[in-house]
Write a structure and sequence with these properties.
CATH topology: TIM Barrel
CATH superfamily: NADP-dependent oxidoreductase domain
Low-confidence stretches: none
Structural class: alpha/beta
Oligomer: single chain
Shape: globular
Strand content: 15-25%
CATH architecture: Alpha-Beta Barrel
Protein name: NADP-dependent oxidoreductase domain-containing protein
GO molecular function: oxidoreductase activity
Helix content: 25-40%
Mean pLDDT: 92
Strand order of the largest sheet: 3-4-5-6-7-8-9
Number of helices: 7
Radius of gyration: 18 Å
Distance between the termini: 16 Å
InterPro entries: AKR (IPR020471), Aldo/ket_reductase_CS (IPR018170), NAD(P)_OxRdtase_dom_sf (IPR036812), NADP_OxRdtase_dom (IPR023210)
Length: 229
C-alpha cells in the first residue's frame, strides 16, 4: 500500500525503522527487510540510536535497484543552521550511497537534555529548514518534513516555509496516540507517520506495556492474530 504526499510523491505506507539496533544489527536487519520486500527504509544521523553507514551497506548488498527504494533520514538538532544542515545532508547521501533522498526530516526542533553535547547548534530549525528547501530546489530530495514537532511548532513551520512539509513523524502507539498532532497534520494536508507503534519507545528495561497490555492481549486472542498485527 502507498500514500500520495501533498507534492505528488508516492510513499510506501509501511516502513522499516532502524532505531536502537546498533550498526551490526542494523546491517543484518535492513538486508533481511529488503530481501523480504520492504522498500521504505527509515534511518537518521543520530549516532546515539542509528547507523546510516550500516543501512547503506545493506542497501548495496541487497541488489535492490535504487528506483524501487524509498529512503528516509533525519537531521540531528545539533546541526541546526544552514551550513551544517547542508554538510550533514550530503554526508547522509554518501552514507546511503545515493544521489538523492526520497524524504528528509528535521529530527527534533531543538536540543534537549544530553542530546547535543559538544559544539552547540549554529542556528535554529528555521535555518535548517531553509537548507532543506535548497536541497529540494537542487533535486537532492523529493520531499521534506519534520519529526517530534509539537502542533504549535508545526503551525509555525507552515507559516514560515516557502516549500511546505509533506510528512510529520512522531511516536504513536495504542497507549500514546499523539492525537492532537495527528489532527493538526491532517488539517494542514500532511501525512502523519508513527514510529514506535509497537511500544519500543517505552524502553527496553521493563516489559513492553503495549505488547503486555491485557486489552490488546484479549483482542489478539479473539482475532487469532499475533500481538503485532
Amino acid at each position: 500500500p502507498t500514500v500520495k504526499l501533498s507534492n505528488g510523491v508516492i510513499m510506501p505506507r509501511i516502513g522499516f525503522g532502524t532505531a536502537g539496533l546498533g550498526c551490526e544489527r542494523s546491517h543484518r536487519a535492513v538486508l533481511e527487510a529488503l530481501l523480504v520486500g520492504y522498500r521504505h527504509i527509515d534511518t537518521a544521523q543520530a549516532n546515539e540510536w542509528y547507523c546510516e553507514e550500516a543501512v547503506g551497506r545493506a542497501i548495496l548488498e541487497s541488489g535492490v535497484p535504487r528506483e524501487e527504494l524509498f529512503l528516509v533520514s533525519k537531521q540531528h538538532p545539533r546541526d541546526h543552521g544552514w551550513e551544517r544542515t547542508t554538510r550533514m545532508f550530503h554526508n547522509t547521501l554518501s552514507n546511503l550511497h545515493t544521489d538523492h533522498m526520497d524524504l528528509f526530516l528535521l529530527h527534533y526542533p531543538r536540543c534537549w537534555g544530553t542530546l547535543c553535547q559538544g559544539t552547540p547548534p549554529a542556528g535554529t530549525w528555521k535555518d535548517a529548514w531553509r537548507a532543506l528547501e535548497d536541497m529540494v530546489q537542487q533535486k537532492r530530495v523529493r520531499a521534506i518534513g519534520v519529526s517530534n514537532f509539537s502542533p504549535e511548532e508545526l503551525d509555525e513551520l507552515m507559516e514560515y516555509a516557502h516549500i511546505k512539509p509533506t510528512v510529520v513523524q512522531s511516536h504513536s502507539d495504542p497507549l500514546i496516540s499523539n492525537s492532537r498532532l495527528q489532527q493538526r497534520a491532517e488539517a494542514h494536508g500532511l501525512v502523519y507517520t508513527a514510529y514506535s507503534s509497537l511500544g519500543t519507545q517505552h524502553g527496553y528495561d521493563r516489559p513492553n506495556p503495549v505488547l503486555t497490555n491485557p486489552v490488546i492481549n484479549e483482542v489478539h486472542g479473539h482475532l487469532a492474530r499475533s500481538m503485532a498485527t
